[in-house]
Amino acid sequence: MHTSTSLSIKVIHAPDARLRIKTKPVRKITPALLQTLKEMIKLTQTFNDPEGVGLAATQVGLEESFFVARLDSSSSARRARLHGSKQIPPSKPGQRKKRWQEYGKEFMAVINPKIITTSKATKTYFEGCLSVPTIWGEVKRHISIKVSYLDITGQNFTKTLKGIPAWIFQHEVDHLNGILFTQRVLQQKGKFYKFTGKDKTGTDMFEEMTL
Ligand SMILES: [Zn+2]
Description:
Layout: H1 31-45, E1 54-56, E2 66-70, H2 75-84, H3 93-101, E3 107-118, E4 122-127, E5 135-142, E6 144-150, E7 156-162, H4 163-176, H5 181-187, E8 192-198, E9 204-209
Antiparallel strand pairs: 1-2, 2-3, 3-6, 4-5, 5-8, 6-7, 8-9
The protein binds zinc ion.
Zinc ion binds at residues 129-131, 171, 175.
């Protein structure tokens, strides 16, 4: 992991109070906002272990409603979703972290996101966050959600997301409401894990922990 010095933004870590701010809608898509979104994508790409798949405005100290994320349906994303359909027991969180890392490569910018409806069905994900390094946890998220948002041109989209993209969207919208995944784990009485390093084969190792 390295952070480029050419970027004017950096990722804020918990317990920084700026991560608890509820953002306000973007009123105008300005060249400055587009520049920020570009930098956020670049910054997210500097994280590869664990790989960054999304970054919300609050995570770089900004107070408007936008995030960048990999929400594409590339082959790697489809593969990740297939893996996702198999329940992996909580004793093997490393495999689930790998699934997160296998997610597709294309980033998109999402402005003023809204979750309109959610499926009753939920799924437990092994979740991490660039603002909460080395801590992972089990979070139940809706399998499918109907969302709306603006793209960088200001065009409004309404879409149904399923699986990994739905999961990431929910994590990022939580950020924009000042909610970290660790709060979800606590609410749901899920388990926390600490990343403890890699074994000889390079597989990530985790230890259950309490927060
Ligand atoms: Zn996060």
